[in-house]
Amino acid sequence: MSRPPPSKGSFDLFLCKLLSHSGLSPADRAALLALPRAHRRFEPGAFLLREGDRPDICPILLSGFAFRRKLSQDGDRQIVAIKIPGDSLDFQSIFVSTADHDLQALTEIEVAVIANRDMENLVASRPGIARAVITDILIEASVGREWLLNNGRRSARARLAHLLCELHLRLELTGSPGLVARSLPLTQEQLADLLGLTPVHINRTLKTLVERGAVVRSGRKIRIADLEKLKAIAGFNPRYLHREVDAACGGETSPFAGAD
Questions:
Q1: 3-class state of residue 128 by DSSP
Q2: Fewer beta carbons within 10 angstroms: which end of the chain, N or C?
Q3: CA 98/CA 102 separation, integer angstroms
């Protein structure tokens, strides 16, 4: 029998994220939950990491949303990753010493702060956890490849639909409410910086998705109205996320599960 989903702000969300793609023994799960950590809160827009930093911590996102960004020489912003509850915000710093991106709070967030040395020691001593961490990093690279395809080859309408489908699925797989039940926390300006479009183009694209009955808008809030329509518009295939729902997360079979 599956247990209830982890509560908001629970470190169990991190365990659920790893279990969504990797098997972990009871001893590995206990070792992860026993990691020494401190909790911190950040306001929207706060920086957790800046390009060029040499971080010594591994923050885990417990509530809220964060994003990674890169800046061009002219100061133009490209959002290159969205982080949701349960995500590690900087696994790569266990293995590389210098940050190559900025990490910023999108909404108010709570993070569990773990010392890199503690995470590194755990990875070195437990092969199952090492495999889960490496798998998580590889899946993040897979998502990056899909975003390159999304921004480079799909229409504006398909780009936005694809992003909404992805975020919805990622949230559901760690026991969080998806975008049918909650609103997207991104502004039109942030969506433009993520999808390589202008805010005006984003607004027009949203109107077409509303007209097709795929999303609903209430002021600046956006949520999914018809998931199947949105998947069809996006041509969404979740293979690149490499996920399986684990009973420990309280998850039920996703509407995406088994898609090929």
A1: helix
A2: N
A3: 11
Q: What is the pLDDT of residues 65-78, one digit of tens each?
A: 999 999 999 999 99
Dist CA 34 CA 82 (whole Å): 27
Architecture of domain 12-249: Sandwich (2.60)
Provide the residue ranges of all domains of the chain, joining segments of one domain with +.
12-249
Q: What is the mean pLDDT of residues 171-188?
A: 92
Residue 8 pLDDT: 57
Cβ count within 10 A of residue 242: 15
What's the CA gap between 114 and 124, in Å, rounded? 16
Enter the tokens of residue 30. Answer: 């206990």
Query: What distance in Å separates the CA atoms of residue 17 and residue 249, rounded to the nearest whole number?
Result: 8
| pTM of this structure | 0.89
| Helix, coil or strand: residue 41 | strand
Joined tokens for residue 257? 């599960």
- Count of CA atoms in the C-beta half-sphere (13 A) of 193: 19
Please state, rounded to an integer, the average pLDDT across all residues of the chain: 91
Structure tokens at 81: 């990753």
Nearest CA-CA partner of 87 in 105, 61, 65, 108 = 61
Element (H, E) at 200: helix 199-211
